[in-house]
Amino acid sequence: MTKMTQIGGASALPLNTILAGDCIEVMNGLPEASADLIFADPPYNLQLKGELHRPDNSQVDAVDDAWDRFDSFAAYDRFTRDWLAAARRLLKPGGAIWVIGSYHNIFRVGAALQDAGFWILNDVVWRKSNPMPNFRGKRFTNAHETMIWASRDEGGKYTFNYEALKALNEGIQMRSDWVLPICTGHERLKDDQGDKAHPTQKPESLLHRVLVGSTNPGDVVLDPFFGTGTTGAVAKMLGRDYIGIEREEAYRAVAEKRLKNVRKFDKAALEVSASKRAEPRVPFGQLVERGMLRPGEELYSMNGRHKAKVRADGTLIGSDAKGSIHQVGAACEGAPSCNGWTYWCYKKDGKRVPIDILRQQIRAEMAERPN
Amino acid sequence: MTKMTQIGGASALPLNTILAGDCIEVMNGLPEASADLIFADPPYNLQLKGELHRPDNSQVDAVDDAWDRFDSFAAYDRFTRDWLAAARRLLKPGGAIWVIGSYHNIFRVGAALQDAGFWILNDVVWRKSNPMPNFRGKRFTNAHETMIWASRDEGGKYTFNYEALKALNEGIQMRSDWVLPICTGHERLKDDQGDKAHPTQKPESLLHRVLVGSTNPGDVVLDPFFGTGTTGAVAKMLGRDYIGIEREEAYRAVAEKRLKNVRKFDKAALEVSASKRAEPRVPFGQLVERGMLRPGEELYSMNGRHKAKVRADGTLIGSDAKGSIHQVGAACEGAPSCNGWTYWCYKKDGKRVPIDILRQQIRAEMAERPN
DNA sequence: TCAGGCCCTGAATCGTGTC
DNA sequence: CGACACGATTCAGGGCCTG
């Protein structure tokens, strides 16, 4: 499967192989202007301190590997500038790069990209359908990661397969936010002890969308932080050539084994059944945020016997209970449960109208503009 | 409605007003450590092309594109550093900032925030339910903007109304991606010609979530790029004090008019689901003193696997540990910590009942007859 | 074979008040 | 200021076992 391509008669391109070593040195040893796309998942510099436990007291297996530790932002910036410069040299004139990161590092990476002369085309948000919650209730659930897509140069003739992405998205233009699950189950590679082989393995679905959208069959895709080789695996399936660079022996071994078992797709296998979505859940609070109901406004029970007042956080306060629309409704009726959506009404032009009408309005909007 | 607050007897804080002028100069004229929250929607219109001049006024030569770019990014970075420094000076020790932007500027803003000593808490993606499509089909639909939420200092005791946000989201922890429509319809302010009064007016729903989540009633919220005053309008509705700074006369005029017509929600509506941490502390010993539990009585663990005996001083003695309800619970489970209130049960009419019920009884009494 | 319950896990910058 | 003790805190999904 390994191909060697002559570039300008000078040096050869080691296609479909994993190169060992520091990515900056290795990249500088490859011929310039030889890659169509670079996908990079660099260390995030998470700066984790203590241990973290779930509410059930189990411990979170954190990313504390040596390769993710940097002495300072300045050190991380230096590292970023250096690998970006080496990467840019490798790109063909119409080439492009994707870099993924979290709020710990992505702002520094984005600024460095711009400073290096890359031209940002989009930032794309990977919205995780199943992220790890925030266990201490001190912040928002960290439910997304950010990818930056940039061309080598301003005005570069980058590849963008608009129609293919639109097809992937059920006929609607692909947006800058992608909802995809994290990598779990059988796709998640394990070592001999049954532990995860790599702490941050990316899902193939993510790379699928990246490569379908911004490369063509036969293109050369380089990944300087290859890890367990998701980029290579998806590139191979899609009929692209890959070059991986990975410093850690253990990751290279896992990736080699993985890639050996990957088969190029036939067309038919490509279509992933679009998961049909259940009726989207609409939090009652959204009616308040959107100004459809106002804090302080009175709601009336369907039977006219009870009323309650809307609060700014989307809870109700009744005569002797406060909480969600369901909880207060149940309390009013002395019932074990209650569907607040059909129980409560608001006043519109003097008439009582069920609040479920408002939920239906929001759902109608969501149906018109899905995703 | 305008309030003036004396800060340290020195200078006054012009609450609920819109200040005219350059935000950096105006901020530097206000007393330090006087704002609880800053919300900023800075400009990113860089004029990267055309009539660009270097700081020394020499015209940029079209040949050295890289320098051109460097110059303009450098100028934007300088501007960003300056207004962030002025903003940080204004924040109280437990203060925090939100900044919103797009891929054109947010990476530079994020890096500058970190460099200035702010501590990023989350990046939050505003996912637009109705974005403008990409008409030329050359990129992804730009369907989101990014907000960065950061505390003034690492370790700062920032405000986060976890329970209120969870309530807004129908009982599920609020995530870092928010789906909200853009500002249209009646909410979108128009000028006398019927054109939109401001090109980037933010929806009130966005500010509602920001302010409910990261401020308390009576807090001071400052917006250095006030525009048409969405921050002020939502702050006023929610019973927060605002300070707006805006350079453009036309925007100030629109905002003044808007704010005059905004009404504060009534008090009960502003009350928000409280966190358990805010509830009064009840020593376990009080249950024994009051005779709700008797010395010698057995307690049983929630899972039924352990038991312990109550002692007269409000400690427990288990099979192989003695101490507080928390310590003995942790020892039984071999866990690093344990909430004894929810872990231990007592027997009532043959059934196991969590001792937390008894704590709730005491708290209810305290609320009825406060000391 | 299927449904239901239990267990485990995921790029995480995840306390606070009192003495 | 540090040390110590209290006690608050999770969502989605996959695997595996049992009935």
From TrEMBL, chains A, B:
<dbReference type="InterPro" id="IPR002941">
    <property type="entry name" value="DNA_methylase_N4/N6"/>
</dbReference>
<keyword id="KW-0238">DNA-binding</keyword>
<keyword id="KW-0235">DNA replication</keyword>
<dbReference type="GO" id="GO:0008170">
    <property type="term" value="F:N-methyltransferase activity"/>
</dbReference>
<keyword id="KW-0489">Methyltransferase</keyword>
<dbReference type="InterPro" id="IPR029063">
    <property type="entry name" value="SAM-dependent_MTases_sf"/>
</dbReference>
<dbReference type="GO" id="GO:0032259">
    <property type="term" value="P:methylation"/>
</dbReference>
<dbReference type="GO" id="GO:0006260">
    <property type="term" value="P:DNA replication"/>
</dbReference>
<dbReference type="GO" id="GO:0003677">
    <property type="term" value="F:DNA binding"/>
</dbReference>
<dbReference type="InterPro" id="IPR001091">
    <property type="entry name" value="RM_Methyltransferase"/>
</dbReference>
<dbReference type="Pfam" id="PF18755">
    <property type="entry name" value="RAMA"/>
</dbReference>
<feature type="domain" description="RAMA">
    <location>
        <begin position="267"/>
        <end position="367"/>
    </location>
</feature>
<keyword id="KW-0808">Transferase</keyword>
<comment type="similarity">
    <text>Belongs to the N(4)/N(6)-methyltransferase family.</text>
</comment>
<keyword id="KW-0949">S-adenosyl-L-methionine</keyword>
<dbReference type="Pfam" id="PF01555">
    <property type="entry name" value="N6_N4_Mtase"/>
</dbReference>
<protein>
    <recommendedName>
        <fullName>Methyltransferase</fullName>
        <ecNumber>2.1.1.-</ecNumber>
    </recommendedName>
</protein>
<dbReference type="InterPro" id="IPR002052">
    <property type="entry name" value="DNA_methylase_N6_adenine_CS"/>
</dbReference>
<feature type="domain" description="DNA methylase N-4/N-6">
    <location>
        <begin position="36"/>
        <end position="256"/>
    </location>
</feature>
<dbReference type="InterPro" id="IPR040843">
    <property type="entry name" value="RAMA"/>
</dbReference>
<dbReference type="GO" id="GO:0009007">
    <property type="term" value="F:site-specific DNA-methyltransferase (adenine-specific) activity"/>
</dbReference>
